[in-house]
Amino acid sequence: MNQNQKIIVAIDGYSSSGKSTLAQEISKKLKYIYIDTGAMYRSIALLAIQKNVFNSDLWNITNFIPFLRNIDFQFQWNKTLNKTDFFLKKKNVQDEIRSKEVTNKVSLIARIPEIRDILTMKQRNFVNNIHNKGIIIDGRDIGNIIFPQSKLKIFMTGSIETRSYRRYQEIQKKGELDSYEEIKKNILYRDMIDISRQISPLKKPIDSIEIDNTSLNPEKQLTRVLQLIEENISSKKK
Q: What is the value of pTM for the model shown?
């Protein structure tokens, strides 16, 4: 693959469909900058939990949004690990935002239009400040709303059983005790919120390529997307 040719790759898709894993593998393979937009929403959910927002009057959007606008949160490129770290109030929160509590609250945060507006602007500004770099971005509305100009758009999907089992395995490795049925119920709930929200609902971009990885292992999935990137780069030369 020609490493001198760089494009923006957008990966949309359902919860626990393997978007982040695929994006990270592509980033490592091609030395692309990886932007996990879901980390931004998770960071806001973490902040809301820390401030007891879900259990107080601050959950009123009128109070929460002005509070949020003044919070210092930013992306920083980690050259050592070849990935983007997320900082909240100058603290790296990459590990904290993967907790069960944050996972259960993030969909509630993501459906608030004012929060989506704030984070969309930050995501676009971050990418606009990167020049002549390959970029891979994953999230639930990247191809449709955030970066519709992306050269290659991938839409990830998979059966609810497969997605739930993969998430169950991840949870088991962390030592958490959630049952498979609990995880499946949570993913179905997140799907419902993502699909039905009024602002930027999850839907497949018209010009995207769908990858159903129900029976596709990570190696074959990675090979397929690398091939698509190569084909896209080759078509640009013609």
A: 0.81
